[in-house]
Amino acid sequence: MRHEPLRQCPCWWKLLSGLFLPCLIISLSSGLVLLFQYRPQGNVFQSVEHITTLVPYGFFFRRLHFASGQACALLALIHVTHHLAKGASARTSLRVWLRLTGGLGICFLLLLTGFILKGDQESVLAGTILKNLAGAVPLVGAWLAPLAVGEGQSFFLPPYIAHCFILPVALLALLHGHLRSWRPDNNTLAIAALLLGGWTVTVPLGLPAPPGMPVDGASGPWFLLGLQELLRLMPPLWGGIILPGLFFVLVAALPILRGRWAKPAHYAVLICVGLYLLLELKRALA
């Protein structure tokens, strides 16, 4: 099986798949509005506060961008998890599988870079950790570290370029063919608008702490809580690079593993996901 037509999917699956595209369009559109107001150099925290408090409807577009971006990542995660749970990865071509998993990875990279671009103390800590992890990569760490975050007044410039230009283009290029089967109907568009509108109005963005202000219990994005716990339990090279790298390689290789290797690899991925969820829960409850 390559691509099962959307009409053959269960109703709930058709709805979830159809929600991704409108959420993506809303995320890109609201991000484009914020792009013209955001200043990636200098006092970025002040720039974000200016957007939130002084720019007309700035707080609305920030919340809308946040909500739609989170929704895109969650829907992509559900889509790939559904493939894993039903064993569809073994019946999917390697090219299609790499596009799906690569798109999911880019969705989370967009969330991570967006988290850093908040410009508050938590984002500075997250950017510093990301730079240290990138610098710990064997052989290419010295080259990767400056691509994570910059220095001084340009600290937020690399994640800004990645978040606003490189990653969105890469995501659209990867999912271009796949999105054709996810075209939503009017009911799906209405549901997406209601859900994102409700989230935008009711869910606050939190009270940011200016850079340099001590923060008790600072944490990164929700999907990296497990990684934070892993880094607490073992050296950064193992917890932040080797183990995650092996997991991603195993996931990417699922379509080409045949015979006696197929089921063990499939179950190994599911076990790793379960263990990571336990780490996420442990960190969240700490």
From TrEMBL:
GO terms for cellular component: membrane. PROSITE patterns: CYTB_NTER (PS51002). It comes from the Bacteria. The chain crosses the membrane at residues 12-36, 64-84, 96-117, 129-149, 155-175, 187-207, 237-257, 264-281. One of its GO terms (biological process) is respiratory electron transport chain. One of its GO terms (molecular function) is oxidoreductase activity. It holds the Pfam family Cytochrome_B. Keywords: Membrane, Transmembrane, Transmembrane helix. InterPro entries: Cyt_b/b6_C_sf, Cyt_b/b6_N, Cytb/b6-like_sf, Di-haem_cyt_TM. PANTHER family: CYTOCHROME B. This is Cytochrome b/b6 family protein. It comes from Desulfovibrio ferrophilus.
